[in-house]
Amino acid sequence: MISSRTEGCTLTGALSVTTSVQDAITVIHGPDGCAHHNFSLLHALHFDNDQLNLPSILSSSLKEQEIIFGGEFALEETLSGAMGESPGAIFVLTSCVAAAIGDDVRAVCNEIRGCPVVVIPTGGFLGGGFSDGVRSALIALSELGKGGDPNGTVTLVGEKNLEYEAEANYREVQRLLGLLGVKVRLRFVRNIAVSEIAQLGSSSLNILREESLADVGDLLKDRFGTPYLPSFPLGFEGTLTFLSQVGDALNTGSDRAISMELERQKGIIDQFSELRGRAVNICHSDHMPAPFLSELLELFDLQVKERGQILTLPDPIPVGTSGLSRMLSRWQRVLHA
């Protein structure tokens, strides 16, 4: 088994969302170590993904004195400095230390005028991990959204900003929606400005990155009346189902799109026909959906053997037909090695 690349701290999960708002500043209310560690991590991952921008993070720099007597004044000073940068918004994330000493972070933030200040509780010691931080950030940032008349477009919710294939996955979803004549209105939240979040309630359909974000989808549905699909398309059959579901949700015909995509999938399956019947030992994470793996085993008549060629199912799962094609290409190279 392999572990997920997105296991870890609640604070890091929230930062993966807030730092993708380009004109906002994220303040970590906690010791410098929390900020420095996460800044280094995000910077390294952004560099690996050919993103040369630095995450905009400030620390309230809690030290021994603040931990004993309270850190609210330190937060006030940090917020004042952040306001001097004229950001579109300030996102305040609480560390485990700030949560433990009981600082009234919301009261301090409520005193700020002239800029939206959004508090996101991320004291992970209270329970939770990376994914909980992502959900908390998305829910908090949704407060900046406004309603609007549905216009036949789609909003993508909760893209995995730290995964290597985030842009490739976006292009695949965009390609599939294009087969239906549907456009993406908003990426909530990936490389956008604060002002764009106001469009959150104007799409006709939300598409969640994965099923674990269902509570975010429910909240947006309750607030704006926007229906949602539970995840990006996974697997060959899942991609065809995705096209059908989008077509039904937006009252647009999907038969032609499904037919076109089915032909494309047949071509890809034929392209990798040499995989058929191979003895393999497939490594995957514990939460890999069984239907996804079963489809691959059946399509290529793969024989799972303890001494078979070791192949890896990536986590996150490849998105759509194009994601599967990239993965099968990697498998083919491994079998040729």
Overall description:
The chain is α/β, with parallel strands linked by helices and 337 residues long. It is built from 13 helices and eleven strands. It has three domains: 135 residues, 3-Layer(aba) Sandwich (Rossmann fold), CATH 3.40.50; 111 residues, Rossmann fold; 68 residues, no CATH class. The longest helix is centred in the first third of the chain and has 17 residues. It is globular and about 65 Å long. The N terminus is likely disordered.
Summarize the structure.
The protein is α/β, with parallel strands linked by helices and 337 residues long. Helix content is 45%, strand content 14%. The chain folds into 3 domains: 10-144, Rossmann fold (3-Layer(aba) Sandwich); 154-264, Nitrogenase molybdenum iron protein domain (Rossmann fold, 3-Layer(aba) Sandwich); 269-336, no CATH class.
Enumerate the spans where pLDDT stays under 50 for 5 or more consecutive residues: 1-5
Query: End-to-end span in angstroms?
Result: 22 Å
The computed structural class is alpha/beta
| Number of discrete helical segments | 13
Total count of strands: 11
**Whole-number count of domains:** 3
* Biggest sheet, spatial arrangement of strands: 2-1-3-4
Q: Helical amount among residues, as a percent range?
A: 40-55%
Rg over alpha carbons: 22 Å
Determine the mean pLDDT.
Answer: 89
Features:
337 residues, alpha/beta, Rossmann fold, 3 domains, four-stranded parallel sheet, 13 helices, 45% helix, disordered N terminus
